[in-house]
Design goal:
eight-stranded mixed β-sheet; alpha/beta; 13 strands; Aspartate Aminotransferase, domain 1; three-stranded antiparallel β-sheet
Length: 372
């Protein structure tokens, strides 16, 4: 099998990097950083972008600028990367873990409603694998209860809900450019918003409390240094140009895999709501019904990896299963779906979906052969 490595570099990536190296500014104030912020924000249907050293910091920035803090509760999905919850904890607020839907892997709006309390101040939908959470119902719920929505769109570069791009629904959103993401500079992130005041306050916070147009040694508010470097921005700019074609390749290959495996009993891929009319295809998610498939999820995972197909057997526990949250500092709603997914779900990374036609056919044949 010929499954591409990731990340990949092209000859065209060298020119913007060389321009930075030959300049006097390698840090966050090179013009390519602002150019990337503007282009990526527009690509995601947002007006402003504030780039950050990584997606975790971007999420912490969003929480801080939104004014969340001690005494506040923020509802997050029980299934996500740890930063979704720790960003809440690091501003002193309390993460409330709510269950996901059994087929989309995204935050269940009904479980969010059940998790509401007088202390609830915000919701953090995670667009898991690149398919958007139900933004119609979640935004309606937020409006009904006057809640802030901060989208964790770390997986969702280029994804859409009814033609509107991920990251453009809430007060703010964040994206990640970590090594495995569909756009990467090794580490990196960005906060997006359509709120001008929020953008200005976020930029000031991420730039050590400086004011736009102010002096270098004049700090007006408490902040920190979250800045993305020019070398990181230079890596990202050409990738934004390549992203639509890469999404189309992944879409075509995922469609083929789903079609060739549709008759395999006990294998169920992530349900994509009809409102999701474009996706990053960051992950190909699925669940294994061991009784019907004839193998457990772990046996399925071991067989794929033994044949050279990268496969992750989901997370080892919901977020609240981490030792950090076993000690408290959170509120946990009943999450039977999340706990079931830990036992039976898996994902294939996006680089699998960038393989050639023969490799995609081989993967489909391999999975069919595993059914007993």
């Amino acid at each position: 099998m010929r499954i591409p490595n990731w990340p990949v570099a092209m000859q065209t990536d060298l020119r913007p990097i060389r321009e930075v190296l030959e300049s006097h500014q390698w840090g966050g104030f090179h013009e390519c950083v602002a150019r990337f912020e503007e282009r990526f924000a527009a690509f995601q249907h947002c007006r402003w972008g504030v780039s950050c050293a990584n997606g975790t910091l971007a999420l912490e920035l969003a929480m801080a600028v939104a004014g969340l803090g001690p005494g506040d509760e923020v509802i997050v999905p029980a299934i996500s990367f740890i930063s979704t919850a720790t960003a809440v904890s690091r501003v002193g607020a309390t993460p409330v873990f709510a269950d996901i839907e059994p087929d989309t892997f995204n935050l269940d709006p009904e479980r969010v409603r059940a998790a509401l309390s007088p202390r609830t101040k915000a919701i953090v939908p995670v667009h898991f694998g690149g398919s958007l959470a139900d933004m119609n119902r979640l935004m309606d719920l937020a409006a009904e209860h006057n809640l802030i929505v901060i989208e964790d769109a770390a997986h969702a570069h280029g994804s859409e809900w009814l033609g509107r791009r991920a990251g453009s629904f809430g007060l703010a959103s964040i994206f990640s450019f970590q090594n495995s993401k569909v756009m990467t500079c090794g580490e990196g992130g960005i906060l997006l918003t359509n709120d001008e005041d929020f953008a200005a306050r976020a930029r000031s916070f991420a730039n050590q409390g400086r004011a736009a147009g102010g002096g270098w040694f004049h700090h007006h508010t408490l902040g920190s240094n979250f800045r993305l470097s020019a070398l990181q921005a230079a890596l990202l700019l050409p990738q934004l140009d390549r992203l639509p074609a890469q999404i189309e390749l992944r879409r075509k290959n995922e469609e083929r895999l789903r079609a060739e495996l549709a008759s395999v009993e006990g294998l169920r891929f992530q349900r994509i709501p009809p409102e999701v009319n474009a996706r990053s295809h960051y992950l190909l998610l699925g669940r294994i019904d061991a009784q019907r498939f004839g193998r457990t999820r772990d046996e399925f995972h071991q067989a794929l990896t033994a044949h050279g197909v990268p496969c992750t057997p989901f997370y080892p526990h919901p977020l609240y299963g981490n030792p950090l949250y076993q000690r408290g500092g959170c509120r946990v709603e009943p999450c039977p779906v999340a706990e079931a997914c830990v036992r039976d779900a898996f994902w294939l990374p996006h680089r699998v979906l960038m393989a050639d036609d023969n490799t995609i056919a081989e993967i489909a044949a391999l999975i069919r052969s595993l059914q007993r």
